[in-house]
Design a protein that fits this description.
16 helices; hydrolase activity, hydrolyzing O-glycosyl compounds; hydrolase; 437 residues; Glycosyl_Hydrolase_39; GH; 3-stranded mixed beta sheet; globular; Glycoside hydrolase family 1
């Protein structure tokens, strides 16, 4: 098959807990997806979109070790297969089941890998995954800012959450590859930048600009700098834990998905406090920083903006983000996809889900009555205009996508068999060259 550019949207499926674990913030419930999922998939098709960031709610699906309730996943994923919509499966989006507790639990990585494998075995036609969404943000909001889940606020808690979250992601990738050898993993991670507002703020800004890379450094097995190594060690990571990440890289199966919002850039004051700066560098500059570091194909995996009082604010943001994507691509970075997140409006993201207020956030391609917004019309037109142009003239790497209904074709099975052999050869080579413990 020819190259594909991944125009995507997503169903918002965040599900952290707040109020000391007593309240579950389930965006699928708040946004009406459990009731209107068939209509939502209709809307995806109306837009001309073939790729959907989507995942089952982990807190109601993963009931215990080896125990799963696939009822909702069976209905929804069978319908996606029928429609030939390729899901980018989001298995953990800011929350874990009550019985696991939170991201301080050292058992979480192994348990999550079992869940990932069970999902892959049940839906073997699924190829694209984001095992854990926004690993850095998840650890930061849960264990450094004290907003979600464990609601802790210390470097030790943050590093503990981060190492468990990234290890869970790595083990899940390995587990999924054991079932689907040609699986592709699209990391959806927030792309951040911290601006020093005066000379005295340069030092804290430098530390924050190093720390923003920690989740991807560990996930991709990239050695951190000496200052970040000391920070990790001082905050409770052991040498053995660090070596796990350096020796378990699956970077060659990955696309670096980066998310960019107006809130991703920050002003740093001399005392280390931060506040939103608004867009200063923008997606183009910051994505080049991340690509220079990891040298992977890139997908813009999230953006949105409120539809403001003029009605065209979100439309203008869409076109500006798209212009940035084209600019990055024309600079020679292999950009393989773009996402407006999410399909419908969201609820309570104005407080970063910290409060259960029921406030509508007009961020979607459609409102919660499933009426299209101006940005939805604009995105539909953008896809129609560019979908057939980009693959033809693209300098991007060809992403070997197997659409859901093609998974039983001979060429798709041959591709997976080739990937399985390549994975085995790589494992053998690494075992032969591994240093003695």
């Amino acid at each position: 098959m020819g190259p594909q550019f991944l125009f995507a949207t997503g169903i918002e499926n965040s599900n952290p807990t707040i109020q000391n674990g007593t309240v579950r913030v389930d965006e699928m419930a708040k946004c009406g997806h459990y009731k209107h999922w068939q209509k939502d998939f209709d809307l995806v098709q109306e837009l001309g979109i073939c790729f959907l960031r989507y995942g089952p709610p982990i807190h109601t699906t993963f009931l215990g070790p080896g125990k799963y309730d696939w009822t909702f996943a069976d209905d929804t994923f069978q319908d996606l297969l029928r429609r030939n919509i390729a899901p980018i499966v989001d298995l953990c989006h800011f929350g874990v089941p009550d019985w696991i507790g939170n991201f301080q639990n050292p058992d979480f990585p192994e348990l999550f890998a079992q869940y990932a494998r069970a999902f892959a075995e049940r839906f073997p036609w699924v190829q694209l995954y984001t095992p854990v969404n926004e690993m850095y943000i998840c650890a930061q909001f849960s264990a450094l800012y004290g907003w979600w889940n464990e609601q802790l606020s210390s470097d030790k808690a943050f590093v503990t959450a981060l190492k468990h979250i990234v290890k869970a992601n790595v083990l899940a990738m390995r587990a999924i590859l054991g079932v689907r050898a040609d699986a592709i993993f699209i990391q959806s991670e927030s792309s951040e930048y911290f601006h020093a507002e005066n000379p005295a703020a340069i030092r804290p800004a430098e530390i924050m600009n190093a720390r923003r890379f920690l989740s991807l450094d560990l996930n991709y097995g990239r050695r951190v700098d000496s200052e970040m190594y000391e920070y990790l060690m001082d905050s409770g990571m052991t040498r053995e834990e660090y070596h796990f990440f350096m020796h378990n890289t699956m970077k060659h199966h990955c696309i670096m998905g980066n998310d960019y919002y107006k809130t991703n850039e920050h002003r740093v004051s001399a005392n280390g406090h931060t506040r939103a700066s608004g867009e200063i560098f923008g997606y183009h500059v910051i994505t080049n920083q991340y690509h220079d570091r990891y040298r992977l194909p890139v997908m813009h995996t999230e953006t949105n903006l409120w539809q403001g009082p003029c009605g065209d604010e979100a439309v203008n943001w869409l076109w500006k983000e798209w212009a940035n994507v084209l600019r990055v691509r024309n600079d020679g970075v292999p950009v393989v996809g773009f996402t407006w997140y999410s399909l419908t409006d969201q609820v309570d993201w104005d407080t970063a889900l910290r409060e259960d207020n029921g406030n509508l956030n007009p961020l979607g391609l459609y409102d919660l009555n499933r009426n299209i917004r101006p940005v939805g019309q604009a995105y539909k037109q953008l896809i129609a205009d560019w979908d057939h142009v980009l693959p033809t003239h693209s300098i991007c790497l060809q992403v070997p996508i197997v659409m859901p209904q093609e998974s039983h074709r001979l060429w798709a099975q041959q591709q997976e068999a080739h990937a399985k052999k390549a994975n085995a050869d790589k494992d053998t080579a690494e075992a032969n060259t591994a240093p003695a413990e």
